[in-house]
Amino acid sequence: MASAELGSSGALLRVLALLLLPGAAPAFKPASIGWSPSSTVRGTLTASDYKTLYYTQKTDHFGFDEDSSFKQRYLLADKYWNKDGGPILFYPGNEGDIELFCNNTGFMWDVAEDFQAMLVFAEHRYYGQSLPFGADSYADSKHLNYLTSEQALADFVVLIRFLKESIPGAGNSSVIAIGGSYGGMLAAWLRMKYPDVVVGAFAASAPIWQFEDLVPCDSFYDIVTNDFTKSGNGCSQSILNSWNAINRVAVTDEGIQWLSSTFHLCCPLQGKDDIGYFKSWLTETWVNLAMVNYPYEADFLQPLPAWPVQVVCKFLSNPSLDDKTLLQNIFQAINVYYNYSGNTQCLNISQAATASLGDKGWSYQACTEMVMPFCADGVNDMFEPQPWDFKSYAEDCFKQWGVTPRLTWITSEYGGKNICSHSNIVFSNGGLDPWSSGGVTKDITDTLVAVFIPEGAHHLDLRFRHPDDPESVVRARELEIKYMKQWLRKTRSSL
């Protein structure tokens, strides 16, 4: 296992892989928590709810030398679609299997009948089943050369054109792009780059400004810390104190063995070189918990209870404990995240989220054009000091992928904060979501609108309606629907 000190760019690449990523021991459960399997108020979608289809895409839309093609998977549901001009709600796929995002974008399913809309979920190239070179797609940087947001947007545009030309009645259908996280970034960029193809975009939790120096690099970890500070006395301080506790315990081989045993690791730590990797995994866990701090049981990244950060913080109320007792409590806390079902045998520190997310592909994207600066100071946040060092970051990228990241490309390609010439985009962000640090949280113009949800975690408003939804997310969805209907009315009146 390679070393990854928390302050290194290697740790940053692991955090970036979230957007904006479990043997031998008997099953275990944390104390003082009533355990029950994850349940969903509204049943999970099944294959019968949509058609699984494939479209042949060019591998390279912008050059003429590479003439190969691949099958892009997309999911289509037309139960409520009005063939006489009903709109198409189009989801530009994220960094993962498209079925994961289809099942976690209940907003589109909830509004389909009202809008009399066709739903389309298009898989992003290099993820899920949409592999341009099959099993060789990740073989080397040459095969990965076509994994870019620009190529993905072109896929979506070509697919939309195909749908409108091949499906009877779809020729006059207006298209609205809807996405969350990276999918939200793509939805916004799809509207910006191809306004003739989509009449508007709803971009939820889309950190389109998490680039260069558009926002402070420490904002992301500040929000994570604030979530834990508000969720329990002593909680964020306990996490802050845990880093030095780990360092002190890991001074000896016996201490490293104790950490492996206490945290029920599937693969024991092999020495001091693994401690940085271990701390990076813990960092990811705290970030993930903040992202999916939903007000009801959910299983987007892992099966979790309602308000999981509050549940976690019950184990972290005393930051002044001795090192080993504090770390035992840290284990109980993260076990809520990894073992809410009660069935996990051991913890795998190579994976912090569902395997349906394409961590490997996103790591490559973060090493090319998706360069998002993050930093922590260990004073105003609960993490070890982690400076932003692009030089070190680029060196790690080259070692891993043989490529050099382009720090300024995304802002050059999509405009950074200079986007006021665009129109018809709703940006929504949640106050609990660390990715809101790079999101649009204030109106730019009367057609580039921000919707802020104080009690919202990562794209909560894109999930299915739920009885336990905070009032702020109910109002947010009403606003989002209002703007979408305005775009459709304006488009129809101009025909």
TrEMBL record:
Subunit structure of this chain's protein: Homodimer.
GO MF annotation, one: serine-type carboxypeptidase activity
Cleavable signal peptide: 1-27
EC number(s) on file: 3.4.16.2
Alphabetic keyword roster: Carboxypeptidase, Disulfide bond, Glycoprotein, Hydrolase, Lysosome, Protease, Signal, Zymogen
Function of the molecule: Cleaves C-terminal amino acids linked to proline in peptides such as angiotensin II, III and des-Arg9-bradykinin. This cleavage occurs at acidic pH, but enzymatic activity is retained with some substrates at neutral pH.
Similarity remark: Belongs to the peptidase S28 family.
Pfam families: Peptidase_S28 (PF05577)
GO terms, biological process: angiogenesis involved in wound healing; negative regulation of systemic arterial blood pressure; proteolysis; regulation of blood vessel endothelial cell migration
Predominant location: other
Gene3D superfamilies: alpha/beta hydrolase, Serine carboxypeptidase S28, SKS domain
The protein's name: Lysosomal Pro-X carboxypeptidase
Enzyme class: hydrolase
Entry annotated with the keyword Ribosomal protein: no
Reaction equations catalysed: Cleavage of a -Pro-|-Xaa bond to release a C-terminal amino acid
GO cellular component: lysosome
Compartments reported by the entry: Lysosome
